[in-house]
């Protein structure tokens, strides 16, 4: 999970990059109205229903600009939030608050939108054994934040990157000359603790993957009936993952297939933001 230690170790560089994108020289707007330090306070307000995620990232963005910024949160990551709810107060140098506002909100809105979309899909899967997970279809340099947001919404994470596990997709299979050859090469090369997953598009490929000893079989863009047949064919000899164009509108129809996992790229590439804003900035006396 992202906590203050994780942010310092892994996320701080990414936050700095985002701030540098927004300020290449100076914040001309802020510097034109504030010529020195002036203590101020603003409120973080939620403008719609959803699940909040990214509050530590929001806070650290400001602290990189002003170490003395004080943030009082009235919610925590993973909480359901409501329109009009005050989520936090931010107090510190008003120059830092103004300069960091957009970057901090960009992180928070994006992450909260993903958490909200994920929570909606998890709810739609209630009553089934299907576990919802994300994919690597993330925004470049935002994967750490986006996969964390999926967890805050109640989903799970697929592999984080290419170093985590063997996933033999259609092009790997094509390059190796077939399912059996690809799995055999993976078993010979990968550490014995590394699971091997194979993406299949037909029942015959699923049969080949089972016979080759795949640990996980991904049913990619198969019809509903084909997926049910594949689950019967695999018969518990491997975990079964469903993948391919899964959305909030289509996920409920997958509940009766009998698979173990459903992976959904839409969690990170199509979730709308959750609208939050920083309002009512005003000077306050120091001390």
Automatic annotation (TrEMBL):
Q: In which pathway does it act?
A: Cofactor biosynthesis; NAD(+) biosynthesis; nicotinate D-ribonucleotide from quinolinate: step 1/1
Please list the residue ranges annotated as the Quinolinate phosphoribosyl transferase N-terminal domain: 27-112
* Catalytic activity entry: nicotinate beta-D-ribonucleotide + CO2 + diphosphate = quinolinate + 5-phospho-alpha-D-ribose 1-diphosphate + 2 H(+)
Q: Top-level EC class, please?
A: transferase
User: Taking every annotated instance into account, which residue ranges of this chain make up the domain Quinolinate phosphoribosyl transferase C-terminal?
Assistant: 114-279
This protein's assembly is summarised as: Hexamer formed by 3 homodimers.
Q: Which NCBIfam families match?
A: nadC
The protein's superkingdom reads: Bacteria
Gene Ontology MF, one: nicotinate-nucleotide diphosphorylase (carboxylating) activity
What family does the Swiss-Prot or TrEMBL record give for this protein? Belongs to the NadC/ModD family.
The UniProt entry, under PANTHER family, shows: NICOTINATE-NUCLEOTIDE PYROPHOSPHORYLASE [CARBOXYLATING] (PTHR32179)
What does the record list as GO biological process? NAD+ biosynthetic process; quinolinate catabolic process
EC number(s) stated in the UniProt entry for this protein: 2.4.2.19
- The answer to whether keyword Membrane applies is no
Q: Name one GO cellular component term.
A: cytoplasm
Gene3D superfamilies to which the protein is assigned, alphabetical: Aldolase class I (3.20.20.70), Quinolinate phosphoribosyl transferase, N-terminal domain (3.90.1170.20)
Alphabetized, the UniProt keywords read: Glycosyltransferase, Pyridine nucleotide biosynthesis, Transferase
Q: What is this protein called?
A: Probable nicotinate-nucleotide pyrophosphorylase [carboxylating]
Function text: Involved in the catabolism of quinolinic acid (QA).
Taxonomically, what lineage is the organism? Answer: Bacteria, Bacillati, Bacillota, Clostridia, Christensenellales
């Amino acid at each position: 999970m992202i906590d203050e230690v994780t942010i310092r170790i892994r996320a701080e560089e990414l936050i700095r990059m985002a701030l540098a994108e927004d300020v290449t020289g100076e914040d001309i707007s802020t510097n034109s109205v504030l010529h020195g330090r002036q203590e101020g306070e603003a409120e973080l307000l939620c403008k719609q229903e959803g699940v909040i995620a990214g509050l530590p990232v929001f806070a650290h963005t400001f602290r990189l600009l002003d170490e003395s910024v004080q943030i009082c949160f009235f919610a925590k990551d993973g909480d359901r939030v409501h329109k009009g709810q005050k989520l936090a107060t931010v107090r510190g140098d008003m120059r830092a608050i103004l300069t960091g506002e957009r970057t901090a909100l960009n992180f928070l809105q994006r992450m909260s939108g993903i958490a909200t979309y994920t929570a909606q899909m998890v709810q739609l899967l209630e009553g089934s054994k299907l576990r919802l997970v994300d994919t690597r279809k993330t925004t470049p340099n935002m994967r750490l934040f986006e996969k964390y947001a999926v967890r805050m919404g109640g989903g799970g994470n697929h592999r984080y990157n290419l170093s985590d596990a063997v996933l033999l997709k259609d092009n790997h299979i094509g390059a190796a000359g077939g399912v059996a050859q690809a799995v055999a090469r993976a078993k010979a090369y990968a550490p014995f603790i590394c699971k091997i997953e194979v993406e299949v598009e037909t029942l015959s490929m699923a049969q080949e993957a089972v016979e080759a000893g795949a640990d996980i079989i991904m049913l990619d863009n198969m019809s509903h009936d084909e997926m049910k047949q594949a689950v019967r064919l695999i018969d518990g000899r491997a975990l079964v993952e469903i993948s391919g164009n899964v959305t909030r509108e289509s996920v409920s129809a997958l509940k009766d297939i009998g698979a173990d996992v459903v992976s959904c790229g839409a969690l990170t590439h199509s979730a709308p933001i959750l609208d939050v804003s920083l309002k009512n900035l005003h000077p306050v006396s120091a001390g």
